[in-house]
Amino acid sequence: MNRRITLIGAVLLVAFWAAAAVPAVTAAVRALADRITADRLDRPIDEAVLALEAERRLSVTDRPILELTAQRGRTDDAAERLRQADRSWLDHLTTSASDRTADDLLSRMNGLAELRASVDAGRLDRRETVTAYTDVIAPAGAAPQDTTVGGILALSRSREILAEEDALLAAVSSGRGPTADDRISLTRLAGARRVLFATAGAALPDTAARRHRDVAGSTAMIRLQRIEDRLAVSSDGIPDPSAWSPAFNELNTALWDLQDSATREAADAATPRAVTATVWAGTIGGVGLVALLGLLIAARRTRGAGATTAVTATTVAAGPWHRPGGLLQDLDRRNQGLLQRQMRLLDALARRAGDEETAADLHRAANFGARLRRNVEKGITLTGGVPERQWQRLVPMTDVVRDAAAEISDQDRITTADVASAYLAGTATTDLVHLLAELLENAATFAPADSRIIVDGEHDTAGYLLTVTDAGPGMTDDDLATGHEVMAAPDPPPGGTWWGLWAAGRFAARQDVTVHLHNGYDGGLVAAVRIPPSLVTGRPANGAEPRADLQTVVE
């Protein structure tokens, strides 16, 4: 129940953190991506629009075909630069206004080849040509919004309409002058341009708004509006090119400059907001995540403390031993597997009673039992308990080594011919058997499966020395240092890689035994187990008592 409640609480905490962090991070990414995308695409978009306007005007005048062909090439180059700039990994994060504008413009420019073919074949007259190019440059019906971006779009659209007026005037000037429909179209364009220009002034940033007022009162704007007014009320004739062209060129340049400055000012104003959004997202995401992890760790420690309170009360007298939950779980799983295999084997023995293979099967069953007993006693010892199996008198060292070998699955690979005669104190036998079993199992695990594991034993001035030597790859200097640190540590290391050596270190510490690991001269690893003289003696002569300084043996 406690685990389920903790899990539900963790899920709710993650959900709350995600609800706060995800919108903040998304807004920050979108703000930064919009700024980067605008810097990358605004100039290529303007270049493509300017090239299209120039091509539109040349397409409705009587300029040489070579000049029109050259302009078409410049238009295609501008389209390719825009296409290259529009390819970015940021498109996977966000789609900004600049992205949409570039994509829409490129999509419309894909139809340029068909439009040019219609113009060259004469299938479109000059007025239809102006309309067709205008549809490519800017879609109709785009309504400005009461925002800075909307103001810039309105300003851009008013300038494009001015260029459309110029192209339409160039088209009708090449014929017999504007018709009544042409005058209506020009008057409608002039009215739309003025409305959009006035609307833009109310939404532009401060500095751009002041420049907008300067352009609105400029000489070029006044002269051009007077020409538009005369064209609207006159029933014949066309504007004098010497009056229209200078006013148009000057006003068109001023509008381009105003649009660029307004775009830069808007981008500069958006930068602090993007930075603020990024900092806020980092605060929400980073600090929130740290707080979340802290709460989860605190909850886990609280649960762990509650679970071990009863154990601590019963094991205080046994010394500073700890309950390594993961290790015990691993032992339980091994016990379960060994028990299942032993039960199946015993069942087979019952069915084959009297069979010639019974002896071999009984031997295997005894080995399974010894390994299971080792796991159980190991778990009891490492959690501060005392196994019930105890020796009451001295135990031959050869029996200690043989019992340790019986506790691993590869006991047939153990060679014990060079174990000098000695006797071990009974109270230390269980711990030393389990210590040797851990070292033997490590050796059997890392050495080749067909190699032998040699156990030697000899007396020396510091007591008795047992060595376990394998033919494996040995250990690096770092691993040797780690192995010694693990064996000396009171708490188990994380994971299961070093648990065997940690258990060996705990058994050794209980009896003041030392274990040293080093690489052999001919390869492999040597584990040297030094038993203090208080625990070991030679064979008693004629039943004599052991040495007086030997550790007291339970009688």
Automatic annotation (TrEMBL):
<dbReference type="InterPro" id="IPR003594">
    <property type="entry name" value="HATPase_dom"/>
</dbReference>
<dbReference type="GO" id="GO:0000160">
    <property type="term" value="P:phosphorelay signal transduction system"/>
</dbReference>
<keyword id="KW-0418">Kinase</keyword>
<feature type="transmembrane region" description="Helical">
    <location>
        <begin position="279"/>
        <end position="299"/>
    </location>
</feature>
<dbReference type="InterPro" id="IPR036890">
    <property type="entry name" value="HATPase_C_sf"/>
</dbReference>
<keyword id="KW-1133">Transmembrane helix</keyword>
<dbReference type="GO" id="GO:0005886">
    <property type="term" value="C:plasma membrane"/>
</dbReference>
<dbReference type="InterPro" id="IPR050428">
    <property type="entry name" value="TCS_sensor_his_kinase"/>
</dbReference>
<keyword id="KW-0597">Phosphoprotein</keyword>
<dbReference type="Pfam" id="PF02518">
    <property type="entry name" value="HATPase_c"/>
</dbReference>
<keyword id="KW-0732">Signal</keyword>
<feature type="signal peptide">
    <location>
        <begin position="1"/>
        <end position="20"/>
    </location>
</feature>
<dbReference type="GO" id="GO:0004673">
    <property type="term" value="F:protein histidine kinase activity"/>
</dbReference>
<dbReference type="Pfam" id="PF08376">
    <property type="entry name" value="NIT"/>
</dbReference>
<feature type="region of interest" description="Disordered">
    <location>
        <begin position="536"/>
        <end position="555"/>
    </location>
</feature>
<dbReference type="InterPro" id="IPR013587">
    <property type="entry name" value="Nitrate/nitrite_sensing"/>
</dbReference>
<protein>
    <recommendedName>
        <fullName>histidine kinase</fullName>
        <ecNumber>2.7.13.3</ecNumber>
    </recommendedName>
</protein>
<keyword id="KW-0812">Transmembrane</keyword>
<feature type="domain" description="Histidine kinase/HSP90-like ATPase">
    <location>
        <begin position="427"/>
        <end position="535"/>
    </location>
</feature>
<keyword id="KW-0472">Membrane</keyword>
<keyword id="KW-0808">Transferase</keyword>
